[in-house]
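Hi everyone,

Forwarding the result from last night's run.
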Amino acid sequence: MLAEDMDWYTSLISGLIFPLHERLKRHSSLAVRRDMESSQWWDRDRLEALRLRRLHRLLDHAGTHVPYYRNLFKRIGFVPDAIRSISELPGLPMLDKAVIRQHLDALKSERAVGLARFNTGGSSGVPLIFHIGSERVSHDVAAKWRATRWWGVDIGDPEIVVWGSPIELGAQDGLRALRDRLFRTRLLPAFEMSAQKLDRFLEEIRRVRPRMLFGYPSALSHIARHAESTGRRMDDLGIRVAFVTSERLYDEQRRQIGGTFGCPVANGYGGRDAGFIAHECPEGGMHLTAEDVIVEIVDQEGVPLPEGEAGEIVVTHLATPDFPFIRYRTGDIGVLDSQMCGCGRGLPLLREIQGRSTDFLVAQDGTVMHGLALIYILRDLPQVQAFKIIQESLDLTRVLVVSESVAAPALIDAIQQGFRARLGERVEIAVEQVPEIPAERSGKFRYVVSRISSGPGAPSNDAARSQ
């Protein structure tokens, strides 16, 4: 980013206040970002050499200080120093959510200090608890920061965030609110999307006149569609970019968001578990955060596939010595690209990301809400291993639940109460315990299905799926 593109306040925040904020949290984000802004221009050979060095460091640490991997390496006769190429990584077993749940404590490094506990599940339908250390946080923050700057915006520029995670929404205490004001970030909850809420969202966006938007593609496109249907012009605010993540971005959503807000749309891919995996640059390339992550594409048997073929995305995050993510199965489907991007960066590309689409749901009073509003209720129940939500009508929602033992009345009651609080007190919530979650006829999994229209001015779920 050129200095003349930033106002004095953004320069102060990105150049002084935010780095100080990160240092106080014992994060090395600034130094990592600076290194990344250099290494992004390296050629593939130099990048591969860096990745191999970092992979050796991670495997050496895991084999020495992480009980799970120490036992695994001993059992299969694996010697980290014997790896001469990243292509040899598939010699190790893959890591999945079931393994992490079963070996949570054994996956912690004996040298780890100050681990942060996270849980996730998102649209995957399989809740997960895991831990993250400061090195991993620093690298993820740096990777996102670098990608933000690709688009001529920076930390401190006015930003509207449309989000639904209780981690963010539940953290809006006085200190967090002060930080958001300092960094000029305004958080709008994505759970409820009634016409009245959408009107207020549009008023707030016009008031703030943000330089960037950030949120779910389904939520931002829903807001954009409401602006269009009510005749509100939103393309004269000076918005430079809309960052979207957490779901698959459909072409129609990109056109709707970009056309309504008068800005390009930048897709991002990652998660709390797998990290900041890839981000789109202004030339349209979906660049992997190659310095931090090794991405494999594998078939149903776990065999690596060549570039250009679709398979499951498996990630090794190189900045996770405290709680290693080595050959972690994301459950997402993707395709690697052998081409170079026109921007000149040496970072490899993801050609396509499939899956991760979440439907909207409709409450009994007509309120349209993001599917994650109900997913988060199930995600935080430790007895629930997997689930599927099927909204049959405004009066009936079925919840398929996979759990280790027979679902206790207290668990069923917690699900029903949580869902009725969102959908309406008179809605019937039918909880059904099943041995596994069935796939769709297409072979893909969908964990939120609504069989009803989303109401006037809202996107129908059928339309969302066809995009």
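The chain has three domains: 22-138+271-354, 152-263, 362-466.

Cheers,
N.
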